[in-house]
Amino acid sequence: MNIYVDYDDCLCETARAFTVIAERLFGKMVPYEEVRFFNLQDSFELSDEEYEALMIEGHRPEALLSYEETPGAARVLNEWIDRGHEVTIITGRPFSSYEPSRRWLDEHGFDRVKMFCLNKYGRDAFIKNSDFNMELEDYYRMRFDIAVEDSPMAFRFFEHLPELKVLVYDRPWNKDCSLPNSNYSRVLNWDQIREIEKAGTI
């Protein structure tokens, strides 16, 4: 089985860390449970300049390396690999963040998992002949059976896979979103994901 896994807020607690950064930089005290929008500029009510500063600060190597693992993620992904499944991390993080992102994975038990930075929104300068970046045309040639994703903004990247089963990791910013179809299921944690996959009920 081929399995797609998103990075931020599926493998690590990125949004929780950004609430701390926003308070430190701008005095914006927004509890994690009230981060209602995937777009953090809207969640924290930031100006364009503040949002840019937030993204720069949150993508510093020291910051990226400090984020906490989402409980159970490494254990489940390694179980899948041990059982012969192909697991691929597809992240919208900028290419410039690859090295610390890869190091974080290696240090948290994800060292056997492949990772690609996908240029989802056309904002990155393409790095030619690398082993880790991916343009949309490359991504659309890939096939997956299961996806683990938290962002409603990413659902459109699954439209070319009508049989794909999508496990939507429950987060405050996706609680009110409508799931596109019956292939989408909401999950609360990695233990639930593990049991669903093992039972073959997706």
Care to describe what's here?
Strand 2, helix 6 and strand 3 form a beta-alpha-beta unit. The chain has helices spanning 14-26, 40-43, 48-58, 61-66, 73-82, 98-107, 136-139, 190-199; strands at residues 2-5, 86-91, 114-118, 133-134, 146-149, 165-169, 184-187. 34% of the residues lie in helices and 15% in strands. The protein has 8 helices and 7 strands, in the order βαααααβαββαβββα. A 7-stranded parallel β-sheet has the order 4-3-2-1-5-6-7. Helix 1 packs across helix 3 (48-58). The model is unreliable at 125-129 (pLDDT under 50). It is an alpha/beta fold.
In a few lines, what is going on in this structure?
With 202 residues, the protein is an alpha/beta fold. The chain is built from eight helices and seven strands; from the N terminus they run βαααααβαββαβββα. Helix content is 34%, strand content 15%.
